[in-house]
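Lab notebook, bench 4. Still working through the backlog of constructs that have no structural model yet. Next entry is a single chain of 230 residues. Request: give me the structure tokens for it.
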Amino acid sequence: MCGRFAQFSPLEILRQKFKIDSVSCEFTTNYNVAPSNEVLVIVKQENKNNLEKQHWGLVPRWAKDISTGFRMINARIETIATKPAFRDAFKKHRCLIIADGFYEWKGEKGAKQPYFITIASGEPFAFAGLWDKWNKNKGDKEPAYKSCTVITTTADRSISELHDRMPVILSSKYHELWLNPTIQSRKDLDAILHDGLRSDMKYYPVSKQINSVKNNNPSCVAPVYMESFN
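Model written out:
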């Protein structure tokens, strides 16, 4: 599972790292992304890649209210093609969720140590994601509530001692394939997720301040000595 992550690379770096044709949101950083927060995603619109913000926690268009999103921050790779909340988005509404790393906790309940996990190069990367838009009432003039979910898979052995699940991180050469709306067969999409999965991970302990969503600054991702928590 992925319950917290971070987005802090500047827009200039994101433009270098990803194919971004347009930006339709105000750029902000977040070192402690929590469910329901707005996050930076890339979606395909009119054959162009648009960087926009969506709420983390997918709310299907048929949901009664947006509270559904709190249960939909992750989508298991094993069931995205069949689970009602995800199967349509899997075919038609795929996105890249920008990240610089994510957090996991290890240890006994009440004394768990948080760790920051990123790719070996330390560069920003993209989670494979799904998105949807929801309106309170059909024909409502209010803007649609756009939301997304992070696809997860079995953890790579490099981080399996921290958790048995991890987000699907896609290699850059598979980004356009994932966003391509003409690719809709389960076989082809499963192949993208399988073949494009990155596993070059590294991690280190960080401050327990990350436990509170009130803390959101660069020190959240700074390495700490384990002895400081004894």
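Notes after review: The first strand starts at residue 5 and ends at 7. The first helix runs from residue 11 to 17. Flag for follow-up if needed.
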